[in-house]
Amino acid sequence: MPHPVPPAWHQADGRPPALLLDGITKTYRSKAGAVDALRGVTYHFQQGSFTAVMGPSGSGKSTLLQCAAGLDKPTTGAVVLNGTPLHGLSEVALTKLRREQMGFVFQAYNLLPSLTVYDNVALPLRLTGRRPQRRDVHQVLQQVGLEDKAGRRPAELSGGQQQRVAIARALITRPAVFFADEPTGALDSKTSRQILDLLRSATDASGQTVVMVTHDPLAAAYADRVVFLSDGVVAGSLDRGTPQQIAAAMSDLER
Ligand SMILES: Nc1ncnc2c1ncn2[C@@H]1O[C@H](COP(=O)(O)OP(=O)(O)OP(=O)(O)O)[C@@H](O)[C@H]1O
């Protein structure tokens, strides 16, 4: 059953937001007790927007990303991707939706060491039962500047090159939404800029939606908007902030 997306959150073109979080909470329970990692997050991510999620350590950023990407389930509340509520889907349908409509880029590149760069990039297509076209694989490798590395294995590449392979692998299915968790966390500043430029062009050139968790104000400044989490709730947001403005907002939160 379609989840009612509040009309106020529809875009000017009448489409639902790329991603809607409606009152999500997440409580982790263990022998040590319960932790309320998210305490009611309501937020919508517009189609074609680039949003950075920032907040102090433990504020719930990774939990939010995991729930938004359907990798974990919120305790209460709804996650709606392009009008499809994730909670209504079977595991099989959720996996299909994730493979077809979501791209993932994490700090650990998660490439398969035994496969070549080409086969790592082609893998998501194979997983969705599609036959990878050489032209498509080479096109995304060219997009990330690694066409000449198609035959290499991940261990033969630098960290930045491996992250670019991970981005190519996420691009190949042309996902509606990219989820990135600290995608530049392990990289030097020049390589980080290349990665952020690639994410930026996913929104600017291809109209994809990017949601990126980061600690780095320089990285967050590539986004259209920064959303600040504090203690499991949205504490505020900043549009088109400079790195200095973003850093100042973060230190206000940490006070
Ligand atoms: N699997 C888990 N079991 C129990 N508690 C958890 C689990 N995962 C996260 N938490 C707790 O939930 C809260 C939010 O964690 P989360 O990792 O989402 O924060 P974060 O903002 O991403 O932090 P960081 O910036 O340090 O990565 C923290 O108190 C954390 O200890």
Automatic annotation (TrEMBL):
Q: Which PROSITE patterns match?
A: ABC_TRANSPORTER_1 (PS00211), ABC_TRANSPORTER_2 (PS50893)
Q: What range(s) does the ABC transporter domain occupy?
A: 19-254
Q: Which key words tag this protein in UniProt?
A: ATP-binding, Nucleotide-binding, Transport
Cite a single GO MF annotation. ATP binding
GO-annotated cellular components: membrane protein complex; plasma membrane
**Stored Pfam families:** ABC_tran
Read off the PANTHER family from this record.
ABC TRANSPORTER RELATED, IMPORT ATP-BINDING PROTEIN
Which named protein is this? ABC transporter related protein
This chain's source organism reads Kribbella flavida (strain DSM 17836 / JCM 10339 / NBRC 14399)
